[in-house]
Structures are given as structure tokens and as C-alpha cells.
Amino acid sequence: MRVLVQRVKASWVMVDGKEVGRIEKGLNILLGVRVGDTEEKVDKLVEKVVHLRIFEDERGKFHYSLLDVKGSALVVSQFTLYANTQKGRRPSFEEAEKPERAKELYELFVKKLSQYVPVQTGIFGAHMEVFIINDGPVTILLEV
Fold first, then answer.
1. For residue 41, what is the enclosing H or E element?
2. How far apart are CA 96 and CA 17, in angstroms?
3. 28-61 burial code (b ≥16 CB/10 A, e <16)
4. How much is the average pLDDT of 114-125?
5. Cα dihedral angle (10, 47, 52, 63), rounded to 10 degrees?
6. How far apart are CA 22 and CA 86, in angstroms?
7. What residues contact residue 46 under an 8 Å CB cut-off, 6+ apart?
8. I want to staple 28 with a disulfide (CB 3.0 to 4.6 A). Which of 11, 90, 102, 106 is the partner?
9. Which entry of 6, 55, 79, 120 is annotated as an active-site residue?
């Protein structure tokens, strides 16, 4: 399981011209599910995300977590995080989990993350436009 976490001042997602999720200060989280990922990995990843200290203190040091700053999260499914580009020019997505299982783990991630912070989402499997106002920018790849 892999997430690309971006610290944002605001982020929102549109599907078919309609806004389906929006946050202010917090994290934009692009979530990829790999073949064989488990519920235990969801738990580990949620813990990493909510406690990741990437918000600055008064001295400009990364000292605060999403919990500390009372931020929100926008979670968007992103199977392309498991693109394999070793051969040729067209990415292969063989490492990405099948949609049915990926959706189960995505929804579990959202549910568990929601126990800690307010969460908004995109629509799993939809073509989405994701808008991000980066803060920094600060972008970190986490994997369990």
C-alpha cells in the first residue's frame, strides 16, 4: 500500500463538473493499493499518516502532525502509483490490486482515517480533476 501525501492549504476534487470533496489546511492523500495488501497494512498506513510530522512549528521545523494542527484529509484513489515503467513507454499496472479489492481497502482506509480527522474523498474509479494548493510544497511518499 502506497500513499503520496501532499501538505496543502486547500484541495478539492471534481467529477463531471461537480465538486465532490474539499478540504482546507491538511493533507491531500493519493492512495494506491497493491496486489496482496491487507487490512493490517491499512492500520499501519493510517497511523503513519496521522502522526507524520510535516507541519511547521514557529521556528519553521517539521514538528506537528495532522492531528496536532487539527487538519483535514482529502483521499483520492490512485492505482497509477503502482505503474511499472521498466519496459517500453507504456506503463504496466500489474502490481495494482483489482478494482473490487482495491475499493474495499480504500474504503477501509477512509473509514479508519475518519476516526482521527475529518476526511473528504473523490469517487473511487471515476475520472477526477484534483485541485491542490500546495503548502511548501511538501510531498512525501509512504509505503507499508
1. helix 39-51
2. 27
3. bbbbbbbeebeeebbeebbeebbebebbbeeeee
4. 98
5. 110
6. 35
7. 109, 112, 113, 116
8. 11
9. 79
Per annotation, catalytic residue among 6, 55, 78, 121: 78
Instruction: Check residue 7 and give its pLDDT.
Output: 98
What CA–CA distance (Å, rounded) separates 118 from 115?
8
Catalytic residue check, 79 = yes
Chain center to CA of 53: 16
Q: Are 69 and 63 in contact (CB under 8 A)?
A: no
What amino acid occupies position 136?
G
> How far out from the chain centre does Cα 119 lie?
11
Determine the Cα–Cα distance for residues 142 and 46; give it in Å rounded to an integer.
Answer: 10
Rounded Cα–Cα distance for residues 66 and 50 (Å): 5
Read off the pLDDT of residues 44-54 as tens digits, 9 standing for 90 and up.
Answer: 999 999 999 99
Contacts of 138 (CB under 8 A, 6+ apart): 6, 7, 54
- pTM of the complete model beyond 0.85: yes
